[in-house]
Amino acid sequence: MDKSAVSKKTRKTLLWAFLAFLPFAAAGFLVYTVFSPEFGTEIPRKYFYFIFLVSIIFSKALLFRFSKGRGFASLLGTALLVFLPAQVVLSLALYRDALSFHPFIYLFSSAYLISFFVFAVLKHRNVRGRENLPVAEKKPLFEKNGLIGLFFSFIVAGIFLIFGLSDLGKFAAVDEPLWTFDRIPKYWNNVADGEFKKTMISDKPGVTVAILSGPALNFLDPKEYRTEREDGYLVNPKNDFERFNFLFRFPILLFSALMIPFFYLLTLKLSDMRTALFASIFIGLSPILLGISTIVNPDSLLWIFLPLSMLGYFAYLKENRNILYLFMAGILMGFGLLTKYITNILAIYFLLIIFAELAFAEKSSRAEFNRNFRSLLADYLMLILTALITAFLFLPAAWINPARLLQITIWSEAFQKIWPFFAIGLAAIFSEAFVFKSRLSYPFFDLVSRKKIWLIRKTGFFFLLFSVFSIANTYLGMKWYDFESIIASPKTSSLLNSFFGFFIANFYSLVFGIAPLILLLIFYAAGKNIFAKDQNSAQKWTAYLFIFIFIYYFASAMSLVSATVRYQIVIFPIAFTIAAFGASSLLDGLKLKNSRMAYGAALVFFIAGIFSLNSIKPHYFSYASDLLPKNYVLNYKDMGDGSYEAAEFINSREGAEDLRVWTDKRGVCYFIKGKCATDIEFKEDLQFDYFVISAGRKNRIQRLSSTRGSRSVYPMDLKKLYEAEKLVFTLEIGGRPNNFVRVISSQDISLK
What we know:
By secondary structure, the chain is mostly helical. The chain has 4 domains: 10-128, no CATH class; 144-150 and 247-622, no CATH class; 159-215 and 227-246; 643-748, no CATH class.
């Protein structure tokens, strides 16, 4: 190599090092003054801010001066490298003490992260090697049948909204006051006050809930609706609590309805109009999905963002890796991270889908295999970066302290035990693709690709096996596993149950939370996979969806937490999408492929869905399939169903304003005109006229009241309430005797 060329390269390297040292040193001195207040008395800290600003401007000016002729991506990459040392120093300092810095520092750190994302986008096309990919068949999104299906999906969304608006304010949901009274006002008050650090309102983190429900604060002040204690009782202010509930819940319900056509559009990219229309009907007319959408809670949005992110990524794989769908999947994943940390499971799942794509790919040379492998990994990084930048932009706490992103990702509850292993595995995978050129993985995937039909068959087989086992165990009187006890205490029953008990209980919540007709279609789709003779698109996508269900249930069982209906709400739209593929496959098998048959089948599903909604109205979240024996309850962890009806009964009694009520459901107290109490341990001798009890709180109250002899100063045996036979009011939700809300008069029972 020419010595002059080497000398020129050395000089440029030294120049970049010098330009990096200037802001690094300025940032170091600035951080030192922040953590050494006594130093600031000698030299005002504002001068160090000024020095840091000048160092940035000077370094950028020289960078532009000596980078003439270079492309924007190259220039941006060099700038990121030059300012990396300063950014590392500031990030460590911000993590320790975010409130001590000038807003300019937060702006610099945020601009650095956004610039890094832009650089990654610019470089992504070069790494992914799109020119080596096969050309997919192009089809218009809005062909005639597609438009008709989209129109019907909006009708489904309208039905969803109409049913949801029915009695929207007339129940008090469990855990909802944490959001309506505390977290949502806290988020918006801190944004208004510029205290961005405090916008991390929960470990969930639930930011999307605060953003969507926040407009309610323009019409009311939650402080005016809080219950107050008076002589040991809870007393309501005379405000309209139904209006309070409606204003907070309506934005989430409306948003959920508008997302139903979005499910249609993404499913349409994977299949045809029939499948997409069936999926939108199954999702939009599901009582459980409607029920969760009427509650101010992260789960009410998680069922939208997480499955849609999956469908967006599948559409990306299907549509010749159109970058639009990759960004869509990443943005939706980012909103999922802002909703609930369980979305992190997608980081593992999408990585597994890469391996599945390699296994399902056509046989190729090692060089072609490696190009495809690197392309998929580059896509994966782009998706994760898009999710992170989306979370960053909508989480003001991260503007101040970028480490907040780690708290909702690798340091979250869902990832905290496994993130070191995940990081090591990820490093090994990227090394294999980019350093070792797939020398180890190519022979393995060449072998696995010969078994791809076997993989498709096993996904259907194991889903059917576990589902049928859960049904058989239920009909045999919970002979092997008591699903009800596991679900009634999903986080505290680990001492009495094994890993497999938790795992199989998840299928109980799923198969009995779906209408029988739709469940049969899921079973049909699983059966088609079992007897698959060759790979087709529908069987591939259903196999991918089954894999997610297995991963989710495995992770839940490993955490020794049973996935109750609420905890596995994201599984339901995935199962409904599988059912849609099953329905289309069934029509094909019956030689009913024309549009009229598709619309006829859609009409049948539509009517059946409306019937299901109407049969459980307005207690949608307490829905259970008719396949479940009447003596069993599916959703012990209900979200407050029946609280309003019990309160209304008591309010209809003479002298309701003077009545005193004890209840195991705090939500009842929000509607009571008189005085109310929910404490298990009383500090004074309170007297009650009525008691309100529910199936969902029976285990908890009985467990807590068993210690009353040593801890409680109020001599009441609350366990007797659940054995009372004389009732003044009873509500059997969904027509199930064991899913009750009851009112007992104090004159009819003695708790001594």
